[in-house]
Write a structure and sequence with these properties.
Blueprint lengths: L6 H24 L49 E6 L4 H7 L4 H12 L13 E9 L2 E11 L6 E8 L2 E6 L16 E4 L2 E4 L6 E4 L2 E4 L5 E3 L4 E8 L5 E7 L3 E11 L6 E2 L4 E5 L9 E8 L2 E3 L13 H17 L3
Antiparallel strand pairs: 1-2, 2-3, 3-4, 4-5, 6-9, 7-8, 9-16, 10-15, 11-12, 11-14, 12-13, 13-15, 13-16, 16-17
């Protein structure tokens, strides 16, 4: 007699048979790596079980990225601005920042006209240069700035006053006129009590002695009017100038005088030449400063460039603003 299984039991038998077949297949796969004659089967490795269905791996769908912005080409006529830290060697710092050699030398000369480079710089100060440029070619230095730690900053721009071109500090505009050293020379005798080299006695030295070569030009320390010009006892050939603000200056031991009494003189104008007239042991300038009739140490007077006044100051500021804006300030 033939037995017929119900449909549900038939399907269950088929599933059981399929499971058994799969178990046999896995067992064969597990032993596939066993050598002939090996007593123990090799352990089943996960890599030996492979899927019969390959599942493709899709790359993640990313949102479209915007194209990079195109940077506009730098205007070949725009001035070049370079800044950096002074450090321990200003010249090397300028070079490391990419300042061309000629413009670097011009920068050092510019700030050297306003401060003493040996004592007026610190490692934390920051330099600021603007160099003119035309058709991509660099020109002259037009701005020399210096941000100083704990001291007043410098904002120097070249300015032509008549036939004289000089570096003028914007920080001095509107201030009282400063005093300029009348000759570039080494101080050989300071202000105060000293032993006189000729009279051999202790006495007050009313000014400072500046050593310089015979015939070196002597200039007026500030704008003023010549009060006297001629021989003046132990001072030899001397010139005295009266300035604004109750200031008078005296220049002694000249070899030749180049000013006349009553003449109006400008700061930096030649008034005579170094010599050794009067009581002098060698060529030098004796320089005195009086304030309201009282002797003062000439080296204590503010030695800054003459400021610009009135409408000229407005023109200076307008040009400076234009340079700073063109340089990206």
């Amino acid at each position: 007699m033939q037995l017929t299984l119900p449909a549900r039991e038939h399907r269950g038998s088929l599933l059981a048979a399929a499971a058994a077949t799969a178990a046999i297949a896995i067992g064969l796969t597990a032993f596939a790596g066993t050598r002939s004659g090996s007593a123990q089967p090799q352990p089943l490795q996960a890599a030996a079980v492979t899927s019969a269905i390959a599942v493709p791996i899709r790359a993640p769908i990313l949102p479209p990225q915007a194209a990079p912005a195109v940077q506009p080409a730098q205007d070949p006529n725009q001035p070049l601005r370079i800044t950096g830290t002074v450090g321990t060697d200003l010249t090397q710092s300028l070079k490391a920042a990419g300042v061309p050699e000629d413009q670097g030398r011009a920068y050092v000369r510019a700030i050297g006209s306003a401060i003493n480079l040996n004592t007026g710089l610190s490692v934390a100060d920051r330099f600021d240069l603007i160099i003119d440029r035309e058709n991509g070619r660099l020109g002259e230095l037009v701005y020399a700035g210096l941000a100083r730690a704990g001291r007043s900053d410098l904002e120097l721009m070249q300015w032509t006053d008549g036939n004289r071109t000089r570096w003028v500090d914007a920080q001095t505009l509107g201030a009282e006129q400063g005093m300029e050293m009348p000759v570039a020379g080494r101080v050989t005798s300071g202000f105060g009590e000293r032993f006189h080299p000729i009279l051999h006695t202790m006495r007050m030295h009313d000014g400072v002695d500046l050593a310089a070569a015979w015939g070196t030009p002597i200039v007026a320390a500030a704008d003023g009017r010549v009060a006297s010009a001629g021989w003046r006892g132990g001072y030899g050939r001397a010139v005295e100038i009266v300035h604004a603000g109750g200031i008078e200056t005296l220049y002694g031991h000249m070899s030749r005088i180049a000013a006349q009494p009553g003449e109006a003189v400008r700061q930096g104008q030649v008034i005579g030449y170094v010599g050794a007239s009067g009581l002098a042991t060698g060529p030098h300038l004796h320089y005195e400063v009086h304030k309201d009739g009282r002797l003062v140490n000439p080296l204590s007077v503010n030695m800054v460039q003459s400021p610009i006044q009135g409408e000229e100051a407005h023109a200076f500021n307008a040009r400076l603003r234009g340079i700073l804006m063109a340089g990206g300030a």
